[in-house]
Amino acid sequence: MHDAAPKPADLFVHGGTLLTPQGATPGDLLIIDGRISAIGAALNAPAGVPELDASGKLVFPGLIDPQVHFREPGWTHKEDIASGSLSAIAGGVTCFMEMPNTVPTTTDPAALEDKLRRAKGRAWADHAFFLGATAENADQLGEWEQAPGCAGIKVFMGSSTGSLLVADDATLERVLRSGSRRVAVHSEHEPRLRERYAALDETAVVREHHTVRDVACAVMATERLLRLAEKTGRKIHLLHVSTADEVAMLRERDLGDLVTAEVTPNHLFLSAPGCYEHWGSLAQMNPPVRTREHQEALRAGLHEGILTCIGSDHAPHTLAEKARPYPQSPSGIPGVQTILPLLLTAVEQGWLTLNDVVRVTASGPARAYGIEGKGALEVGKDGDLVVVDPGVRGPLPLEWLRSRAGFSPYVGMRLNGWPTTTVLRGRVAYARHATVGTPSGTPLRFGADS
Q1: Is the Cα dihedral 141, 144, 146, 150 positive or negative?
Q2: Distance, CA of 154 to CA of 312 (rounded, Å)
């Protein structure tokens, strides 16, 4: 355990193409004491400052992944904070926000503090942890969400168990009326989920997953959620949008900053039924990957800005667990490490731009959650960045992946560009497929009106 806080670091990054809020600009970047001090053409490196040559490379702000499941405590045979954050930093993700459905669940300040202790000296990236909403803690969440290191409140309207499930509108309204920070919501209609799973028989196969958890399961819950958000005035963040219907609903309702939303790379790059025929339960997640028309609507919604950001929903299981017969096979796909190369592939395919990639991986989540000091290559921000070699193209090798899961539906897929160096607050943390130094992640800071 490394208890001492990491010292601020200096770094001079030169020769690359910087993805700044003004667009792609050739230039240099100077980090002093862990924060960006200067950006410009032909800067001079101060004496003694370490240098990083980014010639021929793209330099992005460090990615923010606002939805990961690192399985600690309780399921560390699947993943833990150390291995999950290693996978994050290897993919250029310098900040992660982790979900509360661990064992025990993160539903009170003591459980939150336990996760922060576990992360200290073990997390490779900066971090925060969500508190899970329950019927029992709903009225205390407004106080608890202000705790240092708290990412905010997470609501499971469906697809959870025990006290973390908030399936009824009365309890959901209590949660929304308790506190002021943006609430993250898994939106699936629990009564319909129960009804449809109860109707399954022994012939059910994973190819049916997207019809079992059908479009209506998502749409019915999201309609309820938007109505309650308008009624209470509480800002919400709609997680892993999976349907064309929800994109249309968000576009038509046009609720501005009251509602932000995210999509996973899985829903953008996989489609049913082919993904289930090829990958089986390794492509199974909740809500499900759907058919091509939904994929196309999600891609358009992301480019238009209707969908605010990307969240990987990194949710690993072991291969043995995934091999169970459906529906006993658990839902979840690892993905924190592959966000950036997938989105760069989208740029090559023409349905995203480099500016879109910056928006959905950095500035978008920073704004949605009010994360201080993150989300852009600009003076005063933390010196978080990822250097990408656009010349690294080809099928993804399994050996590059750092998650304990040991699989990915993108293994063998041709990707366009790969992160080669990740910098956290001026300190190189990962380079050439290996860690540098020791884990130095610290808790994220949030603005008062986040």
Answers
A1: negative
A2: 16
Give the Cα separation of 410 and 391 in Å (integer).
Answer: 19
- Any residues with CB less than 8 A from the CB of 203 and at least 6 apart, and which? none
Residue intervals of the chain classified under CATH 3.20.20.140 are 62-369
Question: E strands along 77-147, which residues?
Answer: 93-98, 126-132
At residue 141, what are phi and psi to the nearest 5 degrees?
Answer: -65, -35
Structure pTM? 0.97
β-strand partners of 212:
none
Distances (CA, A) of 81 to 70, 91, 140, 211, 348: 6, 15, 27, 33, 33
Helix (H) or strand (E) holding 270: none
Q: Which CATH class is domain 62-369?
A: alpha beta
Active-site residue, selected from the candidate residues 126, 313, 356, 382: 313
Dihedral sign computed on CA atoms, order 272, 276, 282, 287: positive
Query: What pLDDT does 2 receive?
Result: 42
Report how far residue 247's alpha carbon sits from residue 109's, in angstroms, rounded to the nearest whole number.
Answer: 35
State how far the Cα of 441 lies from the Cα of 12, in Å rounded to an integer: 21
Specify whether the CB–CB gap between 6 and 425 falls below 8 A: yes
Measured distance between the N- and C-terminal CA atoms of the chain, rounded to whole angstroms:
32
| Burial bucket for residue 358 (CB in 10 Å: 0-12, 13-18, 19+) | buried
Q: What is the CATH number of domain 11-59+378-435?
A: 2.30.40.10
In the annotation, is 313 catalytic?
A: yes
Alpha-carbon span 309 to 302, nearest angstrom: 8
Query: What is the per-residue pLDDT across 244-265, written as a single tens digit (0 to 9) for each?
Result: 999 999 999 999 999 999 999 9
What is the token pair recorded at 89?
A: 């930093």
Report mean pLDDT in 10-residue bins for the chain, 450 residues.
66 97 95 97 93 98 98 98 98 98 97 98 98 97 98 92 88 97 97 96 96 98 98 98 98 97 98 97 98 98 98 98 97 98 97 98 98 98 98 96 96 96 98 97 86
The tokens 């072991």 sit on which residue? 318
Q: Where in the chain is the domain with CATH 2.30.40.10?
A: 11-59+378-435
- Output the CA torsion 412→413→419→420 (10° steps): 40
**Residue-wise burial string across 316-343, b where 16 or more C-beta atoms lie within 10 A, e elsewhere:** bbbeebbeeebbebbbbbbbbbbbbbbb
